[in-house]
């Protein structure tokens, strides 16, 4: 797999692979879109040939993230009872959507940004926003901010990590650890119970 990624980073096809992976991982969270972005960014910081342009990679990653979010959002809005039944059959998705409702009441749109880093958080938030019939004007700006934040973080990890550490493999490895750490923190923030409010006096 690493050899395949290495060959892709020297080809313009890397942009297509990154974009498709990011769009689809809202439906298939097991896809390694974060690893692809970091690997491509590390290659952009390495010796020639530097096919991935760092600016183009950032724009493509952020745009693909928003497009994937919107696809899931629209699917959930149009899914109706069929989607509700599919979610009800999954205990994990049911619990996730219950937490989403609580978190949205607490944090509002900021949850969309935080959940973008959590494993499957992007899927839960995008589908949940569509399922609860939230307006696109409420969801889209936060999705754009989430996409830019996630893409900027991932690209910066791969690019500057490689520049600072001197080798692409080490920069990629350390960057993946940092991405995993951010995902773990985001998952904790999304899943933590709401703070108890003090009773009125």
* Beta-strand content: under 5%
Question: What is the string of helix and strand elements?
Answer: HHHHHHHHH
Oligomerization status of the protein chains: single chain
Please bin the fraction of helical residues.
Answer: over 70%
Mean of residue pLDDT values: 76
Name the overall outline. elongated
Q: What is the radius of gyration computed over CA atoms, rounded to a whole number of angstroms?
A: 18 Å
- The total of helices stands at 9
Beta strands, count: 0
- For the termini, the CA-CA separation is 62 Å
Find the structural class using helix and strand composition. mainly alpha
> Which ranges are low-confidence, i.e. pLDDT below 50, for 5 or more consecutive residues?
196-201
Q: Strand count, sense and closure of the main sheet? A: none
